[in-house]
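Researcher: Good morning. I'm working through a list of sequences from a screen, and I'd like to move beyond sequence-only analysis. For each chain I'm collecting a predicted structure so we can compare shapes side by side. This is the next one on the list. No need for commentary yet; just the structure.
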Amino acid sequence: MALTLGASSAASYRNMQYLSQTKSLMDKSLQRISSGKRILSPGDDPGGLAFSMRLQNELTVTNAVQSSVENAKSFTEVQDSALKSAGDILTEMSSLQSKYASATTTDQAIYAGQFRELQVQLGGLASEKLNGVSLFSNDSSHQSASTIYTSAQGASGSSITLGNLDYSKGLSISTGVADRSFLATSAGTVGVAPGSGTGVALSISAIAGQEDNAISSTDISNAIEQIASLRAQSGGKSSVLGFASDYLATKSVSLESAHSRIMDADIAEESLNYSKYSLQYQAGVAALAQSNLSMEVVLDLLRFPSIRA
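Model: Good morning. Structure tokens for this chain:
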């Protein structure tokens, strides 16, 4: 029976091959741990990589749409604030009419001046803007209503239009509001009529409708109803945008989770794999060193044939 002394060169080569493979696996595991990514190159999972790219694109678009919807919500909130102020002004104007009816001539002049200031403020709300965009379509600087898409499908999906509320149509007293009269009898002058030139006195005329251009309580009641209608329209759009924002936020989280399941590495699993490959690598190094040492013993024996036991 032949006696084999030491390991053959083939065994050393195999040990080196195993050592190289283990080193490659250990390096890849370490890269996954440090990067947090399971797919480091297309060869790791071609199908998963392609799917993750599509998910990433949809996630990016969804986040962009959500940002636009959030900006649109801010627009409707400011729009509603302007309409609420208009409603409060009209309510105060109605109150001033009631006070005027039973006031003295001097007090009537005070109420008339206050009423006039409210008229000017009411008309000024029509030109209010947010970030340079008119809140209402009747503003002369208003160009076109903004269309906000509320889905990632863009123009082929759902949308909502902002800035198309006509403030002038919502107020029966808004046309020429700065030039219309308020009081009845000629008991003096109050204030200055905007647009009429500095120093032009505002005549005190009838509340109760004795003059053709007088603002009656019916005018203000109708205006309040129309402002309420506009505010309901704005609130409806705000509600739609709120639901759209909630859906987009939920969709964004779901897409992020799906993308994470495909691309992100399981750190616990990869840490275990790294420990395993590291142990295998150390064992391989020891085995390779042992095989090389055994070959050296055989060569020493062949090198000194005269040595006897």
